Amino acid sequence: MRTATFFALGLITVAASIAAQAPRPVPRWPDGRVRLGSPSGGSGYWASPGARTLTELNAKNEVAPFMPWSRAVFLYRQRTKFRDDPLNRCLPPGGPRQFQQPQGVQFVEQREVGRILVLLGGGNRNWRVINTDGRPIGASAEAVPSYYGSSVGRWEGDTLVVDSVGYNERFWMGSNGVPHTEALHLTERFRRPDFDTLSYQVTIDDPRSYTRPWTAGWTLRWVEGDVPEYFCEGDKP
């Protein structure tokens, strides 16, 4: 009898352990669409990026398919230990770098007006707009190129695909100093395979900087609560 009791308790313990390790289901809207942000009544944001530098996936010989000038700029920034990094002067982290900041990002889906806001915990609490109302890429591009460009998104199954153009050249796409020009076109793919994981993949197409398009990617983890308050103070004397 005692053996049977211990066996039953063991099964309960194993079952509880498996349940604790099982990924939580993806939150969805009433129509079944994946939610990139919090469930109704909840709060949270994405942080802890799986990669801190911007490097081509499966790269063998170098970080990215540089042109001679862009390779020279990249190596210069390495040699000077990133002293010219615009982020040190509190300029916004445009492009993929916005998803590598330690303070994280928060998605606010405004479905009634056809847009998604990406709120940055770092970068002086900047935000980015992704239009999801069906407009073509470039239709809402600003006359003056910006740090976050002009973005349009569409859903392909459970993946949000975002095309962005209209970038300026005043930011670094990654902390390792990979350069770009105003010809930059980003195609980002956001996928939430479970409640606590966000898969981010970006294809970088800048024919003035690179010999071909290239792709980078990493994951972020869900953090319960509000985005931490952070304001950049810049370089100190």
Walk me through the structure.
The protein has a nine-stranded mixed β-sheet, with no helix packed on it. The chain contains two helices and nine strands, in the order H-E-H-E-E-E-E-E-E-E-E. The chain has a domain at 82-224: Lipocalin, CATH 2.40.128. It is globular and about 50 Å long. It has 237 residues and is α+β, with helices and mostly antiparallel strands. 14% of the residues lie in helices and 27% in strands. Mean pLDDT is 88; it is low at 11-19.
Distance between the termini: 75 Å
Order of helices and strands: HEHEEEEEEEE
Unreliable spans are 11-19
Could you tell me the radius of gyration in angstroms?
21 Å
**What is the CATH architecture assignment of the domain at 82-224?**
Beta Barrel
**CATH topology (fold) name of the domain at 82-224:** Lipocalin
Biggest beta sheet summary: 9 strands, mixed
- What spatial order of strands do you see in the largest sheet? 1-9-8-7-6-5-4-3-2
Helix content: 10-25%
Give the overall shape. globular
Mean pLDDT: 88
CATH class of the domain at 82-224: Mainly Beta
Query: From the helix content, strand content and strand pairing, which structural class follows?
Result: alpha+beta
Task: Give the strand content.
Answer: 25-35%
What oligomeric state best describes the polypeptide chains here? single chain
* DSSP helical segment count: 2
- Total beta strand runs: 9
